[in-house]
Design brief:
This protein is an all-alpha fold. The protein is 69% helix and 0% strand. The longest helix has 12 residues, at 3-14. The protein is flat. The protein starts with a helix and ends in a 5-residue tail after the last helix. The model has no long low-confidence stretch (mean pLDDT 94).
Length: 42
């Protein structure tokens, strides 16, 4: 399983939107979107 797939899976198990995960991690929603699409892993 790729990291992007794992992030999506775990986020959905929590019932969180990308915005909610971003808030929990103190990052932008755009960062979460990039992680999930595999564009960026930083």
């Amino acid at each position: 399983m790729k990291l992007a797939e794992k992030i999506i899976l775990l986020r959905k198990q929590k019932g969180w939107s990308q915005e909610e995960l971003a808030a929990q991690m103190d990052v932008s929603r755009q960062s979460v979107s990039k992680w999930e699409s595999g564009v960026s892993l930083r």
